[in-house]
């Protein structure tokens, strides 16, 4: 598939032939869902913790005699049945992550790129380079109509461009190795530089 290449000022810079294996697939929601779920689960801290009956601060002394009270039999006040007692089977620190093969993760990234291309939300940029002036870049982004955009550059991000884009709301920039399904789907517009396209093709082949 062929797509126009644009410059930051909105002018045209020719066109580019995109690999159908990366940008021409029929997007599958089940594949995208599995990869996003894997990403979000790995990002989850898993630090939630409650106190069990062995960790609460009441005395372990038997609270009243076993027989003759007319009430139920109880030992110490740390039992889960009492207010302030330990929590039974509550959350403890653990990893929420699970395994997903490299082959499937690559497949998910290809489907994410294809989903953006099919929806008409893919833009190919000649190069992401700026002098480090946020105001100038913000004006160009506004003129291009990018409100929530992710820019994927080549192996390295241009230092001046990264500095200029740092404080623009709704604009993210990543090197090719940082490209991931969740960030691509989260943004309304996916912008890839020509260097980024070449690097993605090399990475996902």
TrEMBL record:
It comes from Sedimentitalea xiamensis. This is Large ribosomal subunit protein uL4. One of its GO terms (cellular component) is ribosome. Residues 65-96 are annotated as: Disordered. The gene is rplD. InterPro entries: Ribosomal_uL4, Ribosomal_uL4-like, Ribosomal_uL4_dom_sf. Part of the 50S ribosomal subunit. The keyword Amino-acid biosynthesis does not apply. Keywords: Ribonucleoprotein, Ribosomal protein, RNA-binding, rRNA-binding. Belongs to the universal ribosomal protein uL4 family. HAMAP family: Ribosomal_uL4_B. PANTHER family: 50S RIBOSOMAL PROTEIN L4, LARGE RIBOSOMAL SUBUNIT PROTEIN UL4M. One of the primary rRNA binding proteins, this protein initially binds near the 5'-end of the 23S rRNA. It is important during the early stages of 50S assembly. It makes multiple contacts with different domains of the 23S rRNA in the assembled 50S subunit and ribosome.
């Amino acid at each position: 598939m062929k797509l126009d290449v644009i410059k930051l000022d909105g002018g045209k810079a020719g066109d580019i032939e995109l690999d159908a294996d990366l940008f021409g697939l029929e997007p599958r929601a089940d594949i995208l869902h599995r990869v996003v779920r894997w990403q979000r689960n790995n990002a989850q801290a898993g630090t939630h913790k409650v106190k069990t009956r062995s960790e609460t601060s009441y005395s372990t002394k038997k609270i009243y005699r076993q027989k003759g009270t007319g009430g139920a039999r109880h030992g110490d006040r740390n039992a889960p049945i009492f207010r302030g007692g330990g929590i039974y089977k509550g959350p403890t620190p653990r990893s929420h992550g699970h395994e997903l093969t490299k082959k499937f993760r690559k497949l998910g990234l290809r489907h994410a790129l294809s989903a953006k291309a099919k929806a008409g939300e893919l833009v190919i940029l000649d190069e992401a380079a700026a002098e480090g002036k946020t105001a100038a870049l913000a004006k160009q982004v506004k003129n291009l109509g990018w409100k929530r955009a992710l820019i994927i550059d080549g192996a390295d991000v241009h230092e001046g461009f990264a500095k200029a884009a740092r404080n623009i709301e709704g604009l993210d920039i990543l090197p090719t190795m940082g490209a991931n399904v969740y960030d691509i789907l989260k943004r309304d517009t996916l912008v890839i530089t020509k260097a980024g396209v070449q690097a993605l093709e090399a990475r996902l082949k």
